[in-house]
Amino acid sequence: MWRVGFGLEKLGLLAQRRPVLFSLLVLVLIAVAGVNFRNVAFTGSVLAVLPDSSRAFRDYEEIKDDYRNFSRDVTVLVESDRLLTSEGMEALRNLQLDISLSDGVTNASSIFSVPDFDVDSGEVVEWFPEELGSDGETADLVDRLIAKYPPAASLLDRQRKVAVIIATLTAGVQEDDGVSFEAFRRLREDALAAAPEDFKLSFTGLTPIGAAILETLIDDQVKLTGLGLLLGTLIAYLIFRNFLAALLCAIPPVLTALWAFGLFAFFGIRINYLTTVLPSLALILAFADGIFLYFRWQTLNSHHHDAEENLTEAITRVGPASSLTSITTALAFLSFAYADSEALKEFAYLGAGAVSLAFIAVIVGLPVSIHWAIRLGLARTGIHKEPAFQRVGKQVRPAIIGHPWILALAGVVLVGVLCYTQKDITAEYRLVEYLPSDSNVRYGELLADEVTGGRALMLISVPFAESGGLENPANRARLEAVDAVAAEQFGADKVFSARQLFATASSETAKAKIAGLLGEAAEREGTSLESKRGDASLVTVRLSSQMPVAQVEAETRALRKRLSALSYGADVRVTGFPVLMSIEFTHLIEQLRISLILAISFGVVILGIATRSPLMFLAATTPNLLPIFFILSLLYLKGGTVNMSEVVALTLAFGIAIDNAVHLINVFDSQRKEGKETRHALASALEEAGPALTAGTVIICVSFVVTQFSAMPLVPALGELIIATLVVALLSNLLILPANILTLEGLKQRFFPSEPQAGSDAAETQAGKAQP
Amino acid sequence: MKFTLFCQAALALSLLQAPARAETASEFLKSLEGDFSGRGSAVVVGKDTTKISCKLSNRFEESSNSLNVAGECASTKGKGKVSGTVTASNDQLKGNFVSTRQNVKVTKSDGQYANGKMVLSTMMMDEKVGRLIRVRQSVERTDGGIKATFFTYDNATQEYKPAGSISLKKQ
Fold first, then answer.
1. Which of A349, A612, A583, A569 minimizes the C-alpha distance to A463?
2. Pick from A97, A113, A520: CB nearest B39
3. What percent of chain B shows pLDDT beyond 90?
4. Cβ atoms A204, A445 nearer than 8 A
């Protein structure tokens, strides 16, 4: 009767016939996964999903090589009520010195580091004296320094009483995530130990962010996997009210989780903020499919006493659906391979692998476990229990059978309208969305963004016209011109470059001296002002890390346009973290949206192939597009943007949701083959499949509640979107899909009338209407 | 650069922690083994003193009666490494210190330990500008720690002038 599983269910039947062999096979897989389990590794890098061969990425890396690695800077925020007093400022200076001496730190800067030069000689002079005077004198010093060098305001917010210390990690430490995270932890420990009690410290920057994400990923894996298994077992217990049932249903997800981690470790792939969801997702799918199979087996047990025979029947009936569930979900994952990103390709293959492992755990692990439970005399037959949601099919039937074309038309119109809104949805990336909620680093990032006037740095590299570095007036003229362009667009207080230092010098001698000092520092350790080779200078623009990527993209375009007025404008490189993200994430999200279309196409085509019916292919289109467009429209209403995890969630949700259509269509198909006319067949399909689909959706949705316990904001969002999509998909497949089938069958009869058969539509329309 | 001065000074400070009785220079150096850190002031840039912080690790070699010094000093303008070797011979101390700063070479360094006080003098050449730099460190014990005073040689007056001080504590 079930023919949609491409015969993969035979694996389960084989496992039932050769339980010893397959039990050994399962044990071998457990052993292999167990051996590899200790090698599971994680990465907290937020750049992990970016394609590292792109032009934008190369530009970003080159700038870091040419100047210094800005991405590893650790921003320490210091809050204290006495910060603006002499005592407070002295404590701040001491803290800066202590942070400087932390292992793995090259240098630490604060407002005390702002360089000042003698106007005549260009020699460096100390702005702050060794011993600070009265509170009033100190405040005056700060005010005058900021008036002289406006960008210094980004290091001390006088209104909020927040100071900023920026620690640069040493070059050797910067290259390795693990080492840099370790250096950051030492720095944090040293800083917290050195800070006075009334100093509140928070930390941000890509390194603290990466370290925080890493800690959360590890914590999440333990929490989500543990809670997922617990929740799933609880659902199984609530459904079956039997400990053995709960235990048996927990076996496929346990196997899936173990094998999935083994898969990661076996291929030496580090779990990142994207792939972290895979073990939990696969585990949930294994639970849902396992419960379906067990449910069928238990239902059969209530009517027939041969438990082994019932198991064979359950595998034969549920196995094909599980196969197709796995195929469509795996295809949804594989659609991510379309993206340029190696990390997304990894996600695609690992996701498909994890889904396959979940399928094996269900189709092999569960039958084998049930077999041994039967052999041990633990299985009982002859107990009847009515399944949950038994009346769902009957309840929706009148709405469909009565006026199918209204629902079908409503589906088409809704899809059309909702599809139209898609053109205005833009890609979005906000760093803060990737930060663990309630974390110190999230607080630090938000605070730093306000205090510094924008923590995201746009980097503009100005190539020199001639040799001689900044000592050459022609090169300084270029720097001044580009600085002026940036200041005009973003505001002078957002722009920082060596120009401001030269502006304080009164003579060419002083400027040459300053240039010499800058060149020496750049060559020695790399600075944010002049390139190490002395062939370019940098203009830095502070942007809010909350700025939407579309706006960053627009600002970058506008800047390039302004720069094009300069004869050397085309040679000026514009990059930086926000620019990189605006280019790459926009591109990546666009590609993911194509992946979503691919996933939809794959799913519907597979459905068409499985049912061998173009009519079913058409009927399934609107009910399965509707949930996706509905959720996208909600996102549009929420802000008009879609981020990466939302597209990923929608794609995965589609892969899971389309199974509703498969189940319904196949029961309908089998009913038709038994000779029932369309309405009767559909009524029977709704009655049989409706409760199962509702139960399945409830099981998966409840299981996805576990994502709400993640501290990573993306994971709960992903869970919420999948739950919302599945609920809409259930409704559309219970209401619009049957309506589409009826309408299309009606149209088919009208335009391509066939010979009346026994139980034909025309003869039995009234009977169909008369169904309760 | 004058950043070297406080690195040198910090290094000299590590040569402290003398025991109560009179002792040989070798015993004095041996007593300096260990990890030290502390805060003080020194001339880093320009002519004025500024706050500094240092962290040093000293290891004594019996065979050569020498003390190897490694560590870092930081000011609000930057951070530099200090490393070197000081060898004891009777009451005399000598050796050369190597700064990581470019273009500066130590040409001569010697000192004397007597009556619980050590004086170490160093001459350096700034190879970039061809200027000779002379510094001196005077070190004495205080309650619970060590205090050192730094001097730089003023060519105009031909006298050593105070250039900061620092206190280090054993970790």
1. A569
2. A97
3. 1
4. yes
Write out the DSSP string of A55-121. HHHHHHHHHHHHS--GGG-EEEEEE-TTTTSHHHHHHHHHHHHHHHTSTTEEEEE-GGG--EE-TTT
Q: Do B51 and A101 touch (CB under 8 A)?
A: no
Flag whether pLDDT at A5 surpasses 70: no
For the stretch A62-106, pLDDT in tens is 888 898 887 788 999 999 999 999 999 999 999 999 999 998 898
C-alpha A429/C-alpha A574 separation (Å) is 19
Sequence-separated (6 or more) residues with CB below 8 Å from residue A135: A84, A85, A86
Map tokens 């003698």 to a residue. A118
Q: Chain centroid to CA A290: how far?
A: 27
Neighbours of A131 (CB within 10 A): 10
Q: How far is C-alpha A69 from the geometric centre of its chain's CA atoms?
A: 26
Q: What is the tens place of the pLDDT at every residue in A183-228? A: 899 999 999 999 999 999 999 988 888 888 888 888 888 888 888 8
Rounded to whole angstroms, the Cα distance separating A664 from A741 reads 11
| Residue A659: C-alpha distances to residues A1, A195, A693, B122 (Å) | 17, 58, 9, 82
Whose tokens are 């805060």? That residue is B39
Residue A257 CB burial class (10 angstroms; 0-12, 13-18, ≥19)? buried
Write down the mean pLDDT value for chain A.
84
CATH class of the B22-170 domain in this structure: mainly beta
DSSP string, B64-93: TTEEEEEEEEEETTEEEEEEEEEEEETTEE
Type of residue numbered A217? L
Say how many C-beta atoms besides its own lie within 10 A of residue B17's C-beta: 19
Q: What is the average per-residue pLDDT within B81-100? A: 68
Give per-residue pLDDT as tens, A450-492: 888 788 889 999 999 888 889 999 999 999 999 999 999 998 8
Q: Do the chains contact at B46 and A124, CB–CB below 8 Å?
A: yes
pLDDT of residue A427: 75
Q: How far apart are CA A510 and CA B64, in angstroms?
A: 49
Cα(A441)–Cα(A212) distance, rounded to whole angstroms?
A: 7
For chain A positions 111-140, those within 8 Å of chain B (CB to CB) are 112-113, 115, 118, 123-126, 128-130
Tokens coding A614: 């173009």
Confidence of residue B56 (pLDDT cuts 50, 70, 90): confident
- Rounded to the nearest angstrom, the minimum Cα separation between B22 and chain A is 34
Interface probe for B, chosen from A97, A98, A120 (most Cβ of B below 10 Å), is A97
The full length of chain B comes to 171
Q: What gap in Å lies between CA A597 and CA B38, rounded to an integer?
A: 64
- Counted across chains A and B, CB pairs separated by less than 8 A come out at 60
Rounded to whole angstroms, the Cα distance separating A532 from A517 reads 13
Region B45-54 average pLDDT: 80
Residue A658 has pLDDT above 70, yes or no: yes
Residue found by looking up tokens 């130990």 in the block: A193
Lowest mean pLDDT of A138-152, A167-181, A567-581, B8-22, name the range. Answer: B8-22
Predicted-assembly ipTM surpassing the 0.90 threshold: no
Least confident of A539-543, A548-552, A753-757: A753-757
* pLDDT given at position B18: 42
Nearest partner of A625 among A414, A426, A333, judged by Cα: A414
B74/A94 Cβ within 8 A? no
Q: Tell me which residue in B37, B39, B72 faces A94 most closely, judged by beta carbons.
A: B39
> What b/e readout covers B80-115, taking b as 16+ CB neighbours within 10 angstroms?
bebbbebbbeebebbbebebebeebebeebebebee
Q: Per-residue pLDDT for A555 more than 90?
A: yes
Per CB-CB distance under 8 Å, the chain A contacts of B75 are: 97
Residues 6+ apart with CB under 8 A from A250: A229, A232, A233, A236, A287
